[in-house]
Amino acid sequence: MRIQALLASAALLALATSSLAAPLVDGALGDHAVLQRGRPIVLTGKALPGEAVSANLAGKTVSAPADKAGRFRLVLPALQAGGPYRLLIDAPSGQQLIDDLLIGDVFLCSGQSNMELTTEQAQNSFQIYGASDPQIRLMSVPKRLAFAPLDKPDAPPAWTAATPATIGKFSAVCFYIGQSLRETTKAPIGLIHASWGGSRISAWLSPDGLEQAGLGEPAKTLALYTRDTAAAEKAAAGQWETWWRDTSGLAQGREPWRDDTGLAWKPVPVIGSFNRWGLPEMKGYLGMVWFKTEVTLTAEQARQASVLNLGSIDDADRTWVNGQPVGGTSLGRARQYRLKPGVLREGRNVILVNADNVYADGGMLGPASALKLQFDDGTSLPLDQGWLYAPAGRSKSNAPRSPWDDINGAGTLYNGMIAPLGPVSLKGVAWYQGESDTGLPGYDRRLAALMKDWRTRFETPNLAFAIVQLSAYGDTAKRPVENGWATVRDVQRRVAEADGHAAVVVTIDHGDPLDIHPGEKQEVGRRAARAMRALAYSEAVAPSGPRIAGAARDAGGGVTLTFKDVTGALSPRSGAVAIGFELCGAGVCRFANGLAEGAKVVLSGDGQPIDRVRYAWAESPVVNLFDDADLPVGPFEVAVP
User: Fold this and answer.
1) Does domain 221-393 correspond to CATH entry 1.10.3210.10?
2) How far is CA 629 from the centre of its chain?
3) 86 and 97 Cβ atoms separated by less than 8 Å
4) How far apart are alpha carbons 211 and 222 in whole angstroms?
5) Cβ distance 310 to 364 under 8 Å?
6) Which of 68, 324, 401, 499 has the least C-beta neighbours within 10 A?
7) CA 193 → CA 158, 378, 408, 534, distances in Å?
8) For 580, which DSSP code?
9) Are strands 571-572 and 625-626 parallel, antiparallel or unpaired?
10) Which Gene Ontology biological process is one annotated for this entry (predicted)?
11) Dihedral pair phi/psi, residue 218, rounded to 5°
């Protein structure tokens, strides 16, 4: 028996070091991966049509024939935590050995830049050097956009063990979730990180999820884009133009791309960020700015097809030539818009650009040398001079983006980064996103649709979701105001509570008023892990800390708030009263202090109408109410019956 075992090991070693055919399996499976314990292990891939494919793992072998397209699906029995194991996939056309597999719990971490922020960029990065753990495995999904769901990744997934070299480049929040769960579960932990800074939630939805989220039209336009790009571009431009008319109140025919005489044009000082022009009106400016220039063309130039090169524009643009929409793009990448014959004309031509800046530097970033009109005969006309600008202010609602448009599109990141993960089984999902959806109506529907969508995608109806609430950033609010970030936080809370298998991770006490990417990620990871312990492991811990349960009027005209999931009692820090509360009624909100009594907070009336109470309702609110587990009360708005 010992000789047979040695021979088998030698055969596997020879297989591992020999030159093999292309990988047979696809999805998130690769060397050093973690497979979800307690669930059947599903393998999919491609072989030759009709040939038998087998898989052997932990002494169990299964086989099935490939279909007419060569696709196969194998299901191995569930395993308990353990390993390492080797998985052998065998077919007449080739073999594949996947080595150093662990069986444990697998988590997907996704969202935008605060999930993307790496451990070496976060606070306490020195702790990386003592955080090695061979039982924690990391895999970052390469950034990829796609207009239709991909059935496999572009390259085999790169799983690694957690070492100082790999931890530092990995998502900080995601790693700290895994590290915390390792301490409590003692099982191997697999972490899959798939996020993209600045992304809207719509980009992470599948075609079916987009329908559920009320985004059926963008989904159809994206599908049209794969068949007829020109028709889809025209449809997207029409949607933007309709939005502009509705938002600005201008009648048809008075829009800037048809009549720009109503704008207060000024010369552009230099091609580059308008925030750096040295002009007081543009310093720190967030909002839309119109740009235009005019060029005179010969008959020979006008009759040709050409490419309009506008360099980099931040954050998003919508561009017209002679009143005809020619394109629109997000982020800072170079704009290159193809102009068909007939768009240009002999003599005067007007190029009009709307640049929408939503964060940091904005405008036509250049470089100036990149701005030119390139004709099909190889000649070009520079466009680096003669530009005018006119600020248009900040719109009340965000402009629509093209469905295929990078990270703000409809399903582009789901198609390129989630769909290719294959039939991976998950224990839970950590979701940290919402900044880019601030000001967009319907986030509640989109967030609920995402959870339903991904539960269907990963075939786990009760898949746990830890939704990280937006941290504090921006104005501390000297008086009660309506606030988009506070609204998103409350939507996150409401959607999680209505779901039953989700919880918010409160981070309001770990933000930074001056940095949208607060450095404290370790505690965020611990709190997200706590939520997972309650949701995915059924531990008797409060998933979110103290949560508002209800409000009742007092006989004296005040309001008593009742909280649930309170560990011990509520108490204010650095004072005798709890701050951050607002009494609202008759369209007006007023600051109010609260007295904590166990799991309740009493707010005294002020003789004015009260129909609701808000808490921590600002971009960067000052709060001081915690329970005995040092967990803060999170932002909320509650009706007072």
Assistant:
1) no
2) 30
3) yes
4) 13
5) yes
6) 68
7) 12, 45, 19, 22
8) E
9) antiparallel
10) carbohydrate metabolic process
11) -60, -35
